[in-house]
Amino acid sequence: MKRSVWILVVVCAVLGAYALGQEQGEKKGGEMDMAAWMEIGQTGPEHAEMAKLAGDWTSEVKSWMQPGADPTMSKGKSTYKVVMDGRYVRQDYQGDMMGTPFTGVGYVAYNRATGKYESLWMDSMSTGIMFSTGTETEKGKVWEYKGSFFGPGALKVKCRNIIRRISDDRQIMEM
């Protein structure tokens, strides 16, 4: 089963790249511009900034479930790892949420094709994936992501995350 899925993924990727090449990435003579593809596949200064997350982090979490209510407090820990030769950063989170064990896995990327940051998040309180795109709003200090996920009744929930780097060993995330 894995082999047929992998082949399907490769076929889809090749066909998608070919179709994109037909629309946007052609050189004269109908050839795909492979040099352009190779260029956007390289890491840049944005990836070096993301790599600063690598390591073990502790979390103090405040969650407000209703406006005006006192926040619930919890603690957690994350391990961030740079993966795929610096192209992505993976986060593994463990903690609790509302008195329940909570785990999550996330990936952050900088997409050189779009000039935007991208984030995927999956956790033990859902069965879906949250996808967000973001921009750096203050050089080296603030990133803002906007995205969505689906909640009960297939209701699409919009979300906004702001990550503020206070120092190399302290950051604040507002969601």
Counted beta strands: 9
Profile the largest sheet.
9 strands, antiparallel
Q: Determine Rg (CA atoms, Å).
A: 19 Å
Order of helices and strands: HHHEEEEEEEEE
Structural overview:
It is a single chain. It is built from three helices and nine strands; from the N terminus they run H-H-H-E-E-E-E-E-E-E-E-E. It has helices at 2-23, 34-40, 45-51; strands at 55-63, 72-83, 88-97, 100-111, 116-123, 130-138, 142-150, 156-167, 170-174. Helix content is 21%, strand content 49%. The chain has 175 residues and is of the alpha+beta class. It is globular. It has a nine-stranded antiparallel β-sheet with strand order 1-2-3-4-5-6-7-8-9.
Attribute tags:
globular; 9 strands; 49% strand; single chain; 175 residues; alpha+beta; nine-stranded antiparallel β-sheet; 3 helices
Quickly describe the structure.
With 175 residues, the chain is of the alpha+beta class.
Lay out the secondary structure.
Layout: H1 2-23, H2 34-40, H3 45-51, E1 55-63, E2 72-83, E3 88-97, E4 100-111, E5 116-123, E6 130-138, E7 142-150, E8 156-167, E9 170-174
Antiparallel strand pairs: 1-2, 2-3, 3-4, 4-5, 5-6, 6-7, 7-8, 8-9
